Each structure stands twice: as structure tokens, then as C-alpha cells.
Amino acid sequence: MEKISLKALAKINLGLDVVKRRADGYHEVRMIMQTIHLHDRLEITKAKEPGIRIAVNLDFLPTGEDNLVYKAVRMLMESYSIREGVDVKLEKRIPVAAGMAGGSTDAAAALYGMNELFHLGLKRSGLMELGVKIGADVPYCLMRGTALAEGIGEKLRSLPPMPKCPVLVAKPAASVSTKSVYENLKLDEQTVHPDIYAQIAAIREGNLKAVAEHMGNLLETVTIPRCPVIDEIKRCMMEHGALNAMMSGSGPAVFGLFEDEKTAKAAYGQVMKSHLAKQVCLTSIYNNRRK
Length: 291
What we know:
Helices cover about 35% and strands about 30% of the residues. It is α+β, with helices and mostly antiparallel strands.
């Protein structure tokens, strides 16, 4: 095999709670991660010329050491003394810097692809151990599906599959610094935390409406005052049939869950017409249940 083509799937957070700030400055989280069918595309090709070369369809993205795909490829090349070169074509479709793990899922796909292409023999658990060195979301992006994430996001427990449904995603033009959001998050006795365990119970029951009812993201308390358009997009989705709508991760992307495709398509048209978002796409819940 000289070449491998891969889909790098995006994630949303069905629930995101921040439990506490640790002494080292990191935050303990409790969140439900969910893969969706929106994806980037990676093509990794062996090359005789040594080195790593990355071509991306978005010219503002780095292609060198600041790129997580580059870091993932280099990690395996150095760890396994791979002498051949590697050419990577990356087609970005997931909104960039949106709270949807776009960079992390690309890195996860690169780890998986290098393992397959060079027959390294690493199991998923081994790839996940390497992935956490690149970013806290990378192990989940290798795992996929529905999962409870704790710690700084690296402690993962698989959950039963989320009920399948249409998902509308809209990302406004605004940009958000994840670091700044966490730094400005206030945690005290008055903080209202989302009920993650009630949402897990709803997932176990396969109750889509109850999953939507218990959606909550504590980081909205920081991001929405800075970026009010997030709230406008949420309202637009809710007014046009979403069971619920919420910011993903630290934002600014917003997603809405829908019961049926017809309603979701109509809402897609309304969000497009509103001009509140720079990128809008209609996708669906992904689960990795094997029949």
C-alpha cells in the first residue's frame, strides 16, 4: 500500500460541564462527546524524498510544525525510524477553530493512517496513548461514537450509541480563544451546572427528546457575552424546529438536534437566510455500533 485516504470526523459536545480548576491551571471537565458525519479528508502517500509535506485547501492554515497532522506524522516517523517521506493532502470541511475538534480529528486520522500505511501494528489503545501527547481530544477522535470524557478530557468511557438524528451546524465569523474562555470561567456556589448524568440516562434509554432537554454547556456563560451572535443562531434554530440548540466546545460553532430531515432542511434554509453564520452544514449523528 502506497497511499491511504481517510475521513476525519468532527465532534460536538452534547453536554459540557467544568467541575473545578486544578492546581496546575488545567480544568477538570465532565462532558459527553459525540461524533457527527461532517468530516475532513486526508490522503497520505509514501514518498521517496525524505520529510513531511502537507498541502491544505485553506491557505491560512499552517503546514509545518504548528500543524497537528505534521506533529502526528513526525511522532510516528521518529518513534519507528521511518526513513521514507510522507506527502499529506488535507481537505478541510470542518469549521476551523469552532469547538468541533477539527485539528484533533485530523491528527487522529493521521496517526491511524500512518499505522496502516507503514504496518506499525499499533492497536487503537496504543494510538490513543500517543494521541494524548498531541492534544486532549485526539484519543476521543480515535475512539469515536458516544463517550463520557472526564479529567482534562482524556479519561474516556464509551456510552451506548446516541439516537441517530439530523444535526444542523452553524459557525459565525467570530473567533474564540479556548484558553481565554477557560481562564475567564467563574466557578462558585452560584454556578449552575448541566446535568450530565441525566443526559447519560436519556442516551441509555434512547430518548432523543430527553437528550436534547438535558443539553447544556457551561462555557456558554463566557463565550456568549463576548459573541452574542451565538445566542441569535441558537434562537433561529429553535424557532425553526430544533429540539434544542447549543454551542459546541468553547465555540463559536452552534449545533441543533432535529427529529426529522424535513424540519432540519427547512431550518438550514432559514439559518442561511439569516446571514448569522459564515458556514452552515446539515449532517447527522454518527455511531460506531457494529451490527
